[in-house]
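re: ur question from yesterday

yeah so i grabbed the chain u mentioned. its 687 aa long if i counted rite. heres the sequnce exactly as i have it in my notes:
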Amino acid sequence: MTSPAGPPPTGSGGGEQKRLRLLAVTACPTGIAHTYMAAEKLAQAAESRGIDMKVETQGSIGAENVLDDNDVNHADGIIIAADKDVDLSRFASKRVLTVGVAEGIRHPEQLIERVLSAPVHAAGGAPTAPAAGGGRERSVGYKALMNGVSYMIPFVVVGGLLIAISLSLGGHTDPSGGLVIPRDSFWMDVNNIGVIGFTLMVPILSGYIAYAIGDRPALVPGMIGGWIANTGELYDSKAGAGFIGAIVTGFLAGYLVLWIKKVKVPKFVQPIMPIIVIPIVATTVLGLFFIYVIGKPISWVFEHLTDWLSGMTGASAILLGAILGLMIAFDMGGPVNKTAFLFGAGLIATGNQTVMGMCAAAIPVMPLGQGLATLIRKRLYTDQERETGLAALFMGCFGISEGAIPFAAARPAQVIPANMLGGAVAGAIAGVASVEDAVPHGGPIVAVLGAVSGVPMFFVAVVIGSVVTALTTVALVDLGERRRRGEAGPVGPEAALVGAGVGALGAGAVVEKGAVSAVPKQASPAEPDEDGGASGVVLSGHLTERSVKVRLDAADKESAIREMAELLARTGRVADVDALVATALRREEQGTTGLGEEIAIPHAKTDAVSAPVVGFARSTEGVEWGSPDGTKARLVFMIAVPEAAAGDEHLRILALLSRKLMDAGFRERLLDAADEPAVIGVLREVG
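ran it thru and got these structure tokens back, copy pasting raw so excuse formatting
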């Protein structure tokens, strides 16, 4: 919520001219280069006008030059040049101008003029809505969903692992109560802590989806709505709506808060709107809506599914097993899953243990399959997702299907069908083999503890179902990414990562934490190389004379990227030029790496290279790169790092390059350098 304000004071009572003080925040979702170039442009424009400016950069290596309270208190205006959400709450009562990061690169002078008459940001206003430009963006809904998933993951991992540890070390089988941990024991306390984590994960998912849409006023209604969705007793259901219900309440809460914010209220009410009025109204409306409108159908589904399954007890074992597997895998704790589980558990007391055997085989398939998928195709997942995949594998062994929820919440269209297919296969195999389970629990742990009969076929069912889920997930995620990027051919082994802030090298912190700073011995800056010793290497040894070319022959972007890849291959660090080119081109699909000022920095993260490597080439005529300022690229750097790398040295280099390239004199020296050694001499200025 904003309101107009007059121009800032520029003088003091004594007639002394006050030096204008401005702040800025720059950020981009598809590469840190634009972040730093916008920062440099704004700083240069301010300096040329005698204006004090401090710029906070929110790049892949974290926030730098962070604005503190003192900076904000003395600021006359704030420029937000960003293509992702930036929290504006710290800028309340200050003039705030919000634009895309490309505007910070192209028109910094105009932004400085415009911020003097920008509206004042009111307390409780929403985060920035990125303006056009600066690369292809995910939708607001996608970013909100991924925001919720990222906050939920630690709760899933901590809760699931604590429960699994307590079951494995303190539990035993009991025909009347499943896997039992002795009451008042140490391991029961550990289990209870894990249960708290699991209880909180669904409200956290809902709350932070809402927060990403409606800012802080939406957090409370989102969390309480998620709790209601997950608590079936509140709407007469034996099972809550689970994570699917949490996604629904998260979006409802976020957009409800946005709508309430638009309601005009008296001025004296405005200060309490974000902290009292909006949370109370939104929470009450959302809670009652879920209980009386959404909850009733959920209860109806639960009851009728139970009746339907009861009528199938005489059906074919393979059909019943497949149906139970589909249901178990569908919502992992929701009404469909709980219906199948309670149906199987209820039949144990009647002496029919085969139905629970079908359920027990399907229960671990989702976390095991999703964890296996992160191992099969690591490059399809962010670092955080790969770590969650390892935890999911562990949880799957202990029959904790919720380990797959982060994956299903992030990519429901791909993951849920894959889960259901694998669950159906596992359930059907267990049904055909007449596997029995004497306790209401699932996963390999029940077989290890002796509650399962037909153990070999039980494990066959689990393994085959998990493999089916993993392979199907990988195939569907690949297909989804190809469609999103408009690629016609199959995705190669160097496919870009998928997820929040997804991209190849420069796609954001989630993806970028894995680059290597180690330098192969032959390229170490401290040791001579074959081309003349340590004098021929710069940028921590990642760039040498071998990877410098004073004349780029290519006339278009694709040809230029291939020529640059072949240039990098001279170093001996490129194992597959075609794969490197394919990955770099996929990165371009997400947003141009043309930065303006006749500069382009294509980059790729791929196992096609064995170690980090940087190349540079000059184009006499320039190559059309889709740069924000419309200039052709004459100075082209290419950076490539391996997938299984560690550290963020390449991010430091990219940041240093981006900043230094804003120096017109530096660019001129690069353009005028006569040969490769002269280019290396200029590039040493980067640091």
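noticed a couple things. Residues 135 and 591 are 4 Å apart (CA to CA). also The mean pLDDT is 78.
anyway ttyl
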